[in-house]
């Protein structure tokens, strides 16, 4: 019985051709035509003026914060239901995460709770928005585009405007989607992607910030390339060696050529699971808000208990099929157990009941049917 993995890269001849070009031209390091092409194409796709490519999505988030002058003594609001890298990037910048709940129908940051928390727990002191209990400055909101689906950006941007907060979006898995008909780069100050191996398109590893504020983007580029002031080893800040290499971008450009096919494949996989399990008792489907598109990064089901999820995962494993739970919330992770957090009713009732199912863009219909039948048998 062949093994069906959860979510693996899909590389082939195009990627091989571009990699060969890197070797032939000897542009294998942090300068090269593919890096520039990749930045320009991703920025255009995102509806932004520019992009700055880096070695990882976590680095993109880290540099976004630093470029925005966010650090020690600052709070950044984000959902607890995210991959730990979102919170880690805030910690790497020296700032402090302020964890909040998600909306049930999008699995993204709950703007209602954000507003309520800001209203009741902050005040302006000498023009600076401060969290009353800790005295910290509230600096930014970091919505996370869970499953490649944008957060409720209209409401989030209204709050950000009202309170003078920056919006730095963790769009790790959301390449190519739109929110209320706008490309996602247009609905946040800075937007960060990841191109690690399980994302819709991969560079092997990689990340990018896209945005249209020239000053912010210039600072991001400068900070991520060791803050080099001149070609003669002069540096004017403590910078970071985060630049994406031409080899990574070569893979990324080839993947970008195939993005439409990948998005179609992901959607088809999501729809097939939906069709197979819609209406089944004890099973709920992943959310699909109507005013935004999604990469359908992961597919899967919501079951009625964590035990059920474990049982399905182990029964599928016996049939050589990989299935896994999804993100454990940040406020339950060891480094963040004492982090500043709001009530998490939705996150807590939801996270442990999610099972993610195979959804690689290379998954064929016969293998998906094998998965469906195995799940059916396991939840009977
Ligand atoms: C929501 C989210 N944020 C951040 C990251 C970090 O990206 P990377 O692994 O490229 O550092 C990921 C993925 O790994 C992610 O899913």
Q: What does the main sheet amount to? A: 8 strands, mixed
Domain tally: 2
Number of helices in the DSSP assignment: 12
By DSSP, the count of extended strands is 18
* Average pLDDT, all residues: 97
> What is the CA-CA span between the terminal residues?
22 Å
- The CATH topology name of the largest domain reads Aspartate Aminotransferase, domain 2
Q: Roughly what fraction of the amino acids lie in strands?
A: 15-25%
The CATH class assignment of the largest domain is Alpha Beta
- Give every kind of bound small molecule, once each: pyridoxal-5'-phosphate
State the secondary-structure class. alpha/beta
Q: What order do the helices and strands follow?
A: HHEHEHEHEEEHEEEEEHEEHHEEHEEHEH
The named CATH superfamily of the largest domain: Type I PLP-dependent aspartate aminotransferase-like (Major domain)
Shape: globular
Spans where pLDDT lies below 50 across 5 or more residues: none
- Give the helix level as a range of percent: 25-40%
């Amino acid at each position: 019985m062949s093994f069906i993995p959860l979510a693996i890269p899909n590389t082939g001849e195009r990627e091989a051709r571009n990699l060969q070009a890197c070797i032939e031209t000897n542009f294998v390091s942090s300068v090269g035509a593919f890096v520039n092409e990749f930045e320009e194409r991703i920025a255009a796709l995102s509806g932004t003026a520019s992009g700055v490519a880096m070695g990882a999505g976590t680095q993109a988030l880290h540099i976004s914060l630093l470029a925005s002058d966010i650090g020690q003594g600052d709070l950044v609001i984000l959902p607890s239901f995210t991959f730990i890298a979102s919170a880690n990037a805030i910690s790497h910048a020296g700032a402090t995460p302020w964890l909040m709940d998600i909306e049930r129908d999008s699995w993204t940051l709950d703007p209602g709770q954000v507003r309520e928390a800001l209203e009741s727990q902050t005040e302006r002191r000498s023009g600076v928005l401060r969290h009353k209990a800790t005295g910290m400055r509230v600096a930014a909101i970091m919505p996370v585009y869970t499953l490649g689906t944008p957060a409720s950006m209209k409401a989030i941007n209204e709050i950000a405007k009202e309170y003078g907060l920056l919006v730095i979006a963790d769009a790790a898995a959301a390449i190519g989607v739109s929110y209320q008909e706008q490309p996602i780069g247009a609905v946040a100050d800075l937007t960060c992607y990841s191109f690690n191996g399980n994302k819709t398109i991969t560079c092997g590893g990689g990340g990018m910030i896209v945005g249209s504020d020239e000053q912010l983007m210039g600072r991001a580029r400068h900070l991520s390339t060791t803050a080099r002031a001149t070609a003669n080893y002069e540096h004017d800040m403590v910078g970071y060696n985060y630049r994406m290499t031409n080899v990574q971008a070569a893979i990324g450009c080839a993947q970008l050529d195939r993005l439409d096919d990948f998005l179609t494949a992901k959607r088809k996989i999501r729809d097939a699971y939906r069709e197979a399990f819609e209406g089944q008792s004890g099973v709920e489907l992943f959310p699909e808000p109507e005013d935004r598109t999604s990469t359908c990064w992961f597919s899967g089901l919501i079951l009625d208990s964590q035990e059920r999820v474990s049982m399905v995962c182990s029964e599928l494993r016996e049939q050589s099929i990989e299935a896994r739970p999804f993100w454990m919330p940040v406020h339950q992770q060891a480094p963040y157990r004492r982090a500043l957090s709001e009530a998490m009713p939705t996150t807590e009732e939801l996270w442990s009941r999610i099972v993610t199912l195979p959804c690689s863009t290379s998954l064929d219909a016969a293998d998906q049917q094998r998965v469906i039948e195995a799940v059916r048998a396991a939840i009977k």
